[in-house]
Amino acid sequence: MIRRKSGPIPTQLPAQTAHAGHNGPVERSIETQVSQAVDAWLRWLPRWEPATHRGRIAPCRRCFGSPVLSAAGLGSDVPHGVQHGLSTRIKTIIDHAVAGYTAHNLPMLQAELDQQAARNRARTYRPAEGLDPEFEGLPMDPDPVPGAPFLFTISGLADEVDAALPALPPLSAEAKAALRQEVGLADDYATLIGRDVCGILLHHRLRIQAAVSQYVEPQIASMLEELARSLDAPFASPAEPPGDADTDPTSRPGL
To answer: How many domains does the chain contain in total?
Structure first.
């Protein structure tokens, strides 16, 4: 078992990493990763199709109000499935950068993460792992329907497996305070990297928006056109389209 450290920790971002997004090698590395993520998303986008199932009630916590999507030019008028594939790929870049910072500068937080990773590897059922970016982070089960309970759920099965594993040993009050401080530093670094990533995404907005115009907007327009036709003639039969029959009540026999 990894021993939890409670020694002195830094109170601010170290100088060599506090501005990692602004020195040459790291900046080029992040820029390259963002470009590759956008390229991968653009290769996937032609395969996107509008969902045919019932939409979810709760908004996606990863995408709702995301500054990453704002920087990419994917506003609220863009379907969530299109947004999620890009936001997940960008989140992976930020997560990897924070993981490297944590490994080099935050030993107590890293020890906690290592213990949690070892605990996760002990689980025999891990349905949320190994998913494509378009599905990563989404709820594993559909929203429940009132009066129609599920026999079982994927998340419920995963929780059962997780409950069978022993919990991590408790931390002392001092260790908890030290860990919270390191978590705060990791969050600050994630914010710094996120700002750099958003700045880089601004340079990709034109090709992102061009792809949306080419592959997404025509499908949305087709759906709206089909909906408009069904609303104009909800009960019309193919043999008797609306407007062909005489609808003047005075033309009926006997009137």
So the answer is: 1
